Amino acid sequence: MVVFQKIGIIGLGMLGGSIALDVRRLGIAGEIIGASRRASTLRKARENGFVDRTTTDVHNLIRSVDFLILATPPKVITSYLRILAETNPGLLTTDVASVKEEIIETVNKYFGKSHWFVGSHPIAGSEVQGLAGSKSSLFVSRAVVVSPARNSCPAAVEKVKEFWLALGARVIQMDAREHDYILAVSSHLPHLTVYALVDTLKTVKNPHLYQCLGSGFKDATRIGKSNPQLWAEIFLANRKHLLVHLASYKRRLQRLESLLRGTRRNLLTRYLKEIVVYRESLDGKK
């Protein structure tokens, strides 16, 4: 198992906090140093044992650790990458953002040959925001996509893979463009459509509406409670791929609308059955 003397985590939200919990639980680091823009988050992280110590001095953190994890929103990550390129470009670094092309393009722009940045995206999350949403063993049996940049050192790629494997994850390597195309339909489109579905509910003005919200609606729209600022950033960062899948989704809605207007139950049933069969097949796939 890969072990580090000092791991730095910038961003102590749900993912950053969960990584810190597992790094401590598994003894992967001699010391965990956390950084955040919010003093209250740093205090809670220290008091609850997520990290050994905290700092607001990012430059010093980058100089003092031997593995850095960027667990902030994508736009913030790109700003830290510029600091990293200027301060310690040889530092083993990964991130946890759900969009990769923008980040990898920034790395390709600011880093030279054989650098030690490797992109990551653990496909594990929750609508619960902040440090309070952190969970131990969150990554066990979950997929983590590893996306090297153009000049990522092969040894760095292997170390980042080893790190996620140590946390119990299943590692998948793919380039940033492929990642963003797939995540646009598997994650970003569902969030987008759920926001639209909840917004549709707002148009119904009936005093009995809220008494009639069953588990189906609540389960289907759970992710509609996710951080709007973060998801607006994700949608815009991946809009190229998201718009492609959104157009495809609209065509499916139009087909359903056509079937409803046609009132032919057998055609509608056949179409729904095809979808159910495909959805059931997904449960056995990894």
Keywords:
Rossmann fold; alpha/beta; 6-phosphogluconate dehydrogenase C-terminal fold; 2 domains; 286 residues
Structural write-up:
The protein has 286 residues and is α/β, with parallel strands linked by helices. The protein folds into 2 domains: 4-174, Rossmann fold (3-Layer(aba) Sandwich); 179-282, 6-phosphogluconate dehydrogenase C-terminal like domain (6-phosphogluconate dehydrogenase C-terminal fold, Orthogonal Bundle), CATH 1.10.3660. It has helices at 14-26, 39-47, 58-64, 74-87, 101-110, 154-166, 176-201, 215-220, 228-237, 239-262, 265-282; strands at residues 4-10, 29-35, 53-55, 67-70, 93-95, 118-122, 143-148, 170-173. The longest helix is centred in the middle third of the chain and has 26 residues, at 176-201. The mean pLDDT is 94.
List the helices and strands and how they pair.
Layout: E1 4-10, H1 14-26, E2 29-35, H2 39-47, E3 53-55, H3 58-64, E4 67-70, H4 74-87, E5 93-95, H5 101-110, E6 118-122, E7 143-148, H6 154-166, E8 170-173, H7 176-201, H8 215-220, H9 228-237, H10 239-262, H11 265-282
Parallel strand pairs: 1-2, 1-4, 2-3, 4-5, 7-8
Antiparallel strand pairs: 6-7
Brief sketch in words of this structure:
The chain has 286 residues and is α/β, with parallel strands linked by helices.
Counting H and I runs of at least 4 residues, what is the number of helices? Answer: 11
Average pLDDT for all residues: 94
Please state the overall shape, judged from the principal axes of the Cα atoms: globular
**Biggest sheet record:** 5 strands, parallel
Number of strands: 8
Question: Helix fraction?
Answer: 40-55%
Compute the number of structural domains.
2
In whole angstroms, how far apart are the ends? 24 Å
What order do the strands of the largest sheet run in, or round the barrel if closed?
A: 3-2-1-4-5
Going by helix content, strand content and strand pairing, the class is: alpha/beta
Order of helices and strands: EHEHEHEHEHEEHEHHHHH
Instruction: Name the CATH superfamily classification of the largest domain.
Output: NAD(P)-binding Rossmann-like Domain
**Rg from C-alpha positions?**
21 Å
Per CATH, which architecture of the largest domain? 3-Layer(aba) Sandwich
Strand content: 5-15%
CATH topology of the largest domain: Rossmann fold
CATH class of the largest domain: Alpha Beta
Weakly predicted, low-confidence segments: none
